[in-house]
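Me: I keep going back and forth on a fold encoding question. No explanation is needed for now; the record alone will do.

Assistant:
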Amino acid sequence: MPEKSLEQTLAFAAMVARKQGWALNPDASFLSVLAEGLTANWNRYGYYLCPCRDSEGSRELDAKVLCPCAYSWKDIEEHGHCYCALYLSTGFAASGKEPAGIPDRRFAGND
């Protein structure tokens, strides 16, 4: 797989947000850190593994945490943002609130 650039990753994240009706985290430095993590994971594993989670060793085992992770929709619905706070609901983004830590559904059996 060809390596991805930071710009390609940011374009990917923006496309996902647009298609889902979400907003990207408005904090430019935080967004950059997350995009750098996604880019590094693509260039390491060949897929956009959530930058806030560790790999289980294969795409098949990591399938539920490929960005946007399978838990994003419930997290955004319940908390206003996904686990890593890359994606926010438009209402949460408009509120000006800061994302806070939320439980990781990956190992909680809440999927």
About this structure: The two ends are 30 Å apart (CA to CA). The beta strands are 22-24, 87-89. The first helix runs from residue 6 to 20. The chain has a mean pLDDT of 95.
